[in-house]
């Protein structure tokens, strides 16, 4: 078994060998063959649904960096002067993929790895909430080979070094909507998973949606390089866009954040900045010490547009505080979570759920009695059995001991040119997406001395 001590050495080795940054395109709004996928036409402009503080919300995620390290890199230092630095922002677990899944689904479902999953179509996401209010959305993935691509990763010629072997720039685990069958099984939704040539065209046509998730490739997000390489990319890509009114106007909020920190031995604090024209001038260059997690992106969007909720961790008030400058406007009261009350979110593989083979519990119905920051009703897919509540369901099962894998593992609809790993499970969708994880969450986490994942 590979030890954490060994894993800790890998980033240092990669950093020592990190290549010099080279711009993949002529600019953030210029198409490039380095992005592989050709533009698939711009999105249709949709009527703008006014929010209470912002009309557009864009997330940009960087990879695996401790707060203290990101604080030393020039682009992050300079960008913090233009926005609000969130000094108590936390990821929700380790490793990468469960954090991405949580950002749109309100839970990471017990996942403690970066394996290939297809979360059943009756599990709701933020896209259900947005579409209920006719709010447009898209995900832009650098080096995605074509719109809606569902493969495990994609390897292409190395644009940094043409004499080097092909490189895997795109990975599925950093693409949150593609993890959910409720997106990939609907053609119109699936094609909203777009590449950076599409992004350039959409910006130039002033067709950027109101909710966006943006993932740089594996070198530009610091995963395979280092934080200063990511700084170079931000200076090339994000900084010019901040002056482009098609991307950033006076009703745009931009979150620049990290998926997780690097050091599993400390709590999962991440460097996060709120940028954009929606940030009041009086708050630019300031710090916000409110406790936030990735679930705060959901609750803040819900509060801004008066949306319903998912009835998951987006309604757990401990971990879903609304961005303070927004909460102050809409009258939402955050919880004061400080010191020892901040939950430990550096734990991994210890949370029961439908994507944990050692503590497996099928997907649950949401808490239909929950109240989210937007005040609307909890959204549940019509095919979900709402009677499957924590009170009537049992504890977790060790599928590994039974020589079984979680039903949601594998990719049943992969394209012919994808490169998935050797199948580790049935490859089919979960046969039962209605049973609850919540009852056993309480037991498991009480023993661990943490209660943040209770519904």
Automatic annotation (TrEMBL):
Q: Extract the signal peptide range.
A: 1-15
Composition bias type Low complexity, residue spans:
407-419
Chain coiled-coil ranges: none
User: Keywords in UniProt for this one?
Assistant: Hydrolase, Signal
The protein's GO terms of the molecular function aspect are: hydrolase activity, acting on ester bonds
Q: Name one Pfam family in it.
A: Phosphoesterase
Which portions of the sequence form the region Disordered? Answer: 405-433
- Matching InterPro entries: Alkaline_phosphatase_core_sf (IPR017850), Phosphoesterase (IPR007312)
- Protein name listed in UniProt: Acid phosphatase
């Amino acid at each position: 078994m590979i030890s954490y001590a060994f894993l800790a050495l890998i980033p240092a080795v990669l950093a020592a060998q990190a290549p010099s940054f080279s711009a993949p395109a002529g600019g953030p709004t210029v198409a490039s063959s380095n992005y592989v996928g050709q533009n698939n036409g711009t999105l249709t402009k949709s009527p703008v649904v006014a929010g209470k503080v912002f009309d557009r919300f864009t997330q940009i995620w960087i990879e695996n960096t401790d707060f203290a390290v990101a604080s030393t890199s020039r682009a992050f230092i300079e960008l913090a002067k233009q926005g609000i630095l969130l000094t108590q922002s936390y990821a929700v677990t380790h490793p990468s993929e469960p954090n991405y899944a949580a950002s749109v689904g309100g839970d990471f479902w017990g996942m403690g790895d970066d394996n290939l999953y297809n979360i059943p179509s009756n599990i709701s996401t933020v896209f259900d909430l947005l579409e209920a209010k006719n709010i447009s959305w898209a995900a832009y993935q650098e080096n995605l080979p074509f719109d809606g691509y569902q493969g495990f990763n994609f390897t292409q010629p190395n644009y940094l070094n043409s004499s080097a072997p092909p490189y895997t720039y795109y990975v599925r685990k950093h693409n949150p909507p593609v993890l959910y069958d409720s997106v990939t099984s609907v053609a119109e939704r699936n094609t909203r998973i777009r590449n950076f040539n599409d992004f350039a065209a959409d910006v130039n046509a002033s067709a950027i949606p109101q909710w966006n998730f943006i993932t740089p490739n594996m070198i530009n997000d610091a995963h395979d390089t280092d934080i200063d390489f990511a700084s170079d990319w931000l200076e090339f890509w994000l900084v010019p866009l901040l002056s482009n009114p098609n991307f950033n106007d006076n009703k745009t909020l931009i979150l620049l954040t990290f998926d997780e920190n690097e050091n599993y031995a400390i709590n999962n604090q991440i460097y996060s900045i709120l940028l954009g024209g929606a940030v009041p001038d009086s708050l630019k260059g300031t710090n916000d010490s409110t406790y936030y997690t990735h679930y705060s992106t959901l609750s803040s969007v819900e509060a801004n547009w008066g949306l319903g909720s998912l009835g998951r961790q987006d309604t757990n008030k401990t971990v879903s505080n609304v961005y303070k400058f927004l909460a102050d406007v809409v009258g939402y009261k955050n919880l004061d979570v400080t010191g020892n009350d901040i939950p430990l979110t550096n734990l991994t593989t210890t949370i029961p759920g439908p994507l944990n083979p050692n503590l497996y519990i099928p997907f649950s119905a949401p808490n239909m009695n929950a109240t989210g920051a937007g005040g609307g009703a909890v959204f549940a897919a019509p095919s979900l059995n709402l009677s499957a509540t924590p009170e009537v369901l049992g504890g977790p099962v060790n599928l590994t001991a039974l020589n079984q894998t979680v039903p949601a593992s594998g990719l049943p609809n992969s394209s012919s040119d994808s490169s998935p790993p050797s199948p580790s499970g049935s490859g089919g969708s979960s046969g039962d997406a209605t049973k609850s994880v919540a009852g056993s969450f309480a037991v498991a986490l009480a023993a661990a001395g943490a209660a943040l994942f209770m519904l």
